[in-house]
Amino acid sequence: MTDDGLVHRQYGRTGWDEVTHARIQTVRTSAFSHARFLQLGLHDADAFYARSSRWLRLMAKANRRLGYGQANLAGSTLGAPLEQVLNAMRFYRPELVVPD
After folding, report:
1. Which of 43, 62, 73, 100 has the fewest CB atoms nearer than 10 Å to its CB?
2. Contacts (Cβ under 8 Å, ≥6 apart) of 2
3. Which distant-in-sequence residues (6+ apart) come within 8 Å of 48 by Cβ?
4. Residues 6+ apart with CB under 8 A from 45
5. What is the torsional sign of CA 93, 4, 84, 98?
């Protein structure tokens, strides 16, 4: 993360001006486990996906059908706990909306 935005190995660079909100989402994957994601809302999802890989566009389409956010960063891909990442995002972008 920088003053300009964040960089993710799947999503590439995302500028703070592209992000409308962020929240942590937990999804039950089985009776005994769950997955946690950082969901990002985007001002212009079409522009974001236009510069993404075909695979990412297909995953985003499937995620939208399942009711997930526009950009979903798996907690296991971030290198830090989700709460720490969200706090860092708030540091770099104090006006970031974080719904409950």
Report:
1. 100
2. 92
3. 14, 18, 42, 70, 71
4. 60, 70, 71
5. positive
Reduced 3-state DSSP string for 32-96: CCEEEEEEEEECCHHHHHHCCCHHHHHHHHHHHHCCCCCEEEEHHHCCCCHHHHHHHHHHHCCCC
Q: Are 34 and 27 in contact (CB under 8 A)?
A: yes
pLDDT tens column, 31-57: 888 889 999 999 998 898 888 889 988
User: For the CA atoms of the chain, what is the radius of gyration?
Assistant: 13
Tokens of residue 3, six digits: 């003053």
Return d(Cα 11, Cα 98) in angstroms, integer: 20
* Residue 97, phi then psi, degrees to nearest 5: -80, 130
Instruction: Report yes or no on whether pTM surpasses 0.90.
Output: no
